[in-house]
Amino acid sequence: MLKKENKTDVIVVGAGPAGISCAITLARTGKEVVVIERGMFAGSKNVFGGAIYTKATKEIFPNFETEAPIERRNIEHNFAILGENDSTTITYRKDDNTSYTVIRGKFDRWAAEEARKAGAYIVEETVVRGLIKKDGKVVGVKTELEDFYADVVVLADGVNSLLAKQIGLRKEIEPKDVALSVKEVIKLDKETINQRFRIKDNEGSIVEIFGGPMLGMLGLGFMYTNTDSVTIGLGITLNDLIESNYRPFEILEELKKHPSISPLLEGGTLKEYSAHLIPEGGYKKIPKLCDNGVLIVGDAGMLVNNLHWEGTNLAMISGKLAAETIIKAIDCGDFSRKTLKEYEQSLKKSFILKDLKTYKDLMDVAHARQKAFFSYYFKKINAFFEMFTSADGTPKKEHYHKFIRSIFTDRKLVELFKDAIALIKLLWSILL
Fold this sequence. Notes:
Helices cover 40% and strands 27% of the residues. It is of the alpha/beta class. Strands 3, 4, 5, 6, 11, 12, 13, 14 and 15 form a 9-stranded mixed sheet that branches. Strands 1, 2, 7, 8, 9, 10, 16 and 17 form an 8-stranded mixed sheet that branches. The longest helix is centred in the last third of the chain and has 21 residues, at 312-332. The chain is globular and about 85 Å long.
């Protein structure tokens, strides 16, 4: 219940992993928190590849492995480089519980219910139209129904965060700083999935996909195994899609037809289709994350590690850190930026900003050399293995010489040199 006149301690806008993690952390300490979600239920508007990470999730939900609606425990990670009709795959396999696949519609509803049990008040099917400011401080939100007031407002409203833009905490996102992700959930029986992906009941396999129908665009494909379905999708930077004039679902259809992919999905039926924007800007595009009476968490703060495909763990921990800062602010009665900026300091001390800073130059290099790194070298990797495994009566030395010559004839020497310099600079920034 609200205290009076729609006034509460904290309002959280958005019931995704960041918003719910923030809300449940606050509620467990007795703070009054209202979560406002525009979807019919938590998770109904979320688009998600498939994996949640054990360590981060346990910090918010210690017993989730036995209580949450999880699908499979991921024991295998595959990296597949697709050519036109061939592919090279590297497989890393370990019987561990680093991550689990989930269906966000199920998992987020469960998480929201846990927040309710802890004392959070969740308002669904309600759109926040704007923020209410008074004397330079955010003091509430305007919804299509009524206004709500709070000491602190937490923006967990996703990558587009119109609310952050309204109050000048974020600039308009450039097309190169977001990817459009599209995915399908293909229904298959458990036994078929186990056989095709070489796994047992409750074991999961992740496939990251490079090259193929993405045609040198800056993007990746993915597959995740659920209990009785397979999630397949891809994410490509918005500027590449605009320039290429390709529709993402057309590229996804081509991906599904690839001879290395289609046998894994054969006989399946479409269960779900969705599309969503994903932050891709990295460390250099992180906006101002706090101001008087307001904090930004999760995707709204561009907190996504795109190289490692980590988003939910960053979202959950950022929500938790925001809540811990708010608890201190409530206890001392100060909701100014001076107090709330401790959230930014906590992020800097955590793995979140440390990891994002490690890869701060990644997207600059990726954009500058994407045709090389996302097309030319992928083709050369497949060409190498074709050469190495051929037994056509031609002496091996001739194959080797032909392959080496092709490296310098298919791409100018000056471009190879630029590629090498870019890679060295990137590795230097990552390792030092």
